[in-house]
Amino acid sequence: MSAALGFTIKSGWACAVVLDGSARSPQLVTSRRIELSDPAEEHGRQPYHAGTGTARKPGPQLDKLIASVEKFGRQSVDAFIREHEKAGRQFAGAGIVVGSLIDPAQIANDHIRIHALEGQLFRGIVKAATDRRQVASLIWRERDIYGFAANRLRRSESAIRQTVAGFGRSVEGPWRAEHKAAALAAWLVIAK
User: Fold this and answer.
1) pTM
2) Is the pLDDT score of 169 beyond 90?
3) Whose C-alpha in 55, 137, 142, 175 is 20 to 30 A from the C-alpha of 16?
4) What is the CATH number of the domain that holds 37?
């Protein structure tokens, strides 16, 4: 029996889950939203945006904002992990689900590049926090994870989707695509 973390990265926040159990019979422990940027910081969710579709200029202001976001995000992820370690869980690893893995420098469109930089920033925050807690992490693109899981778990994609949807019956509140992706990432960590 192992426990695993799953995170789906969004702009300024992540859906975080914990699964326990075996690859054959995983069980959802918790699912919640964790903030990766300080809600009190006006520009924390989109630090690379100066305004609609325009990039914030490099310099001390951007550096300070990013440092603030990184510190806040690492503390949030660290607190989530510590809470579950104090409850006696030892993590086999963490699965991180992202929208894109494209290097922002390869993107010609300025506005799309800004979003890619933010995705890279928030993904890096979660990875740095798990690394600091000595929890190895794996990263998947959201659009690839179900296909990868079908091969890895040796189940049909529809059977996997049904199992992941079933996890939602044990939680109060929504069970959306980001919750399901985070749970599947944790399941894949347990199955590795």
Assistant:
1) 0.95
2) yes
3) 55
4) 3.30.420.10
